[in-house]
Amino acid sequence: MAMKTAFLFPGQGAQAVGMGQDLCEQSPTAASMFEQAEAISGLPLRTLCFEGPQDELNRTDIAQPAIFTASAAMLAVMGERLGDAMPTPDVMAGLSLGEYTALYAAGAMDFETAVMLVTKRGAAMQEAAVSVPSGMVSVMGLDEAQAQALCDAAAQGDILTCANFNAPGQIVLSGATDACKRVAEMAEAHGASGAVELQVAGAFHSAIMAPAAEKLAGAIEAASFADPTTPVIANVDAQPYSGASDIKDKLLAQLTGSVRWAQSMQLLLSEGLENPFEVGPGRVLTGLMRRIDRKCRVKTVNSLEAITKIAEA
C-alpha cells in the first residue's frame, strides 16, 4: 500500500496554554466543538486551554480531553480553510492518546464517543498513577535489546518496562518510582548517553495502568466503532487496524503495552511516506521524525497561521 500522505496526531505532553484559542476566535465550527467537548467531559476546557494555569492543564485527566479537542478542532478548521486543497491522507497514526484522534479522524468513532473515552481514559490513568508511586524515564542512546537489558537489571522485583519507542536512541522506561531511580543511576553503565526522569503523573504504558484498563474496559465495550475509512496504525503492534473488530482490544492493550512509535513511522517510510502532517498542538512528532528520518519533513499544523501557510503554498 502506498502511504505518501499521513496525518499524525500528538499525545500527552503536547498541551500548552493558548492552544485552540485562535481557532475558536475565527471558526464557529471549532468554537462549537470546544463547547460540545465541555458538555460531554464536564470540564471547563476553554478556560483551561486558553488561560491555563499550565500545571492544571498538565494533569492527565485534563490534558487528554484538552489535546484531543484541540487536535480535532485543528483538523476541522484545516478542512474548512483548505477546501478542495485539503490533503487526502493515505494513512493516519497518533501517539498514545493521539491514536484516539486518528481513529476519530478516520471515521472509526464519532466526536462524542471520542471525547467520552479520552475523558474516562485520562481520569482512569490519573487515578492509577497516583495510587502507586511510579514514573517514567527517557533513556538516550540505547537500542531495544540494550534498553530491555537495562530494564531487567534495574527492575529488581519492581514493575519496570519499555513503554515508548519514540525514535532510534530514545526509549522511555516506565515503572515503580524506585525502579525509575535505579534506571537513572545505572543507565550510563549500560551504555546510555543519558537518562531523564519525566514530569508525568505515573507509569503510563506499564502494568501499573492495569486498573485504568479495567475502568476503561466497560466504556470501550459499550462504545460503537466503525471500520476506519483510512488505514490507522496501532501503537501496540505498529500495524494497521484490520477493522472495527480489533479497536476495543488494541485500545485497551495500549494502556499497559508499549507505544511503538518509531516502528510505526518506519513502516510508513518503508511504504513511501513523503508528506506527513502533524495535526494538533505542539511539535513533538515533528521532532521525533527528525530523529527517525532526517530527510522526511513534517508539516506542523498547530495554529491557524500554520493552516494559512499551507493554503498559500
Q: What attributes does this structure have?
A:
313 residues; alpha/beta; 5-stranded parallel β-sheet; 4-stranded antiparallel β-sheet; 14 helices; 9 strands; 14% strand
Could you please describe the fold and organization of this structure?
- There is one protein chain.
- The chain has 14 helices and nine strands.
- The chain is an alpha/beta fold.
- Helix 2 (28-41) runs antiparallel to helix 5 and helix 5 (60-82) runs antiparallel to helix 7 (111-131).
- The longest helix is centred in the first third of the chain and has 23 residues, at 60-82.
- It is globular.
- It starts with a strand and ends with a helix.
- The model has no long low-confidence stretch (mean pLDDT 96).
Write the layout of secondary structure elements.
Elements: E1 5-9, H1 21-26, H2 28-41, H3 45-51, H4 54-57, H5 60-82, E2 91-94, H6 98-105, H7 111-131, E3 134-140, H8 144-155, E4 160-167, E5 170-176, H9 177-186, E6 194-197, H10 210-222, E7 232-233, H11 247-256, H12 261-270, E8 275-279, H13 284-292, E9 299-301, H14 304-312
Parallel strand pairs: 1-2, 1-8, 2-7, 8-9
Antiparallel strand pairs: 3-5, 3-6, 4-5
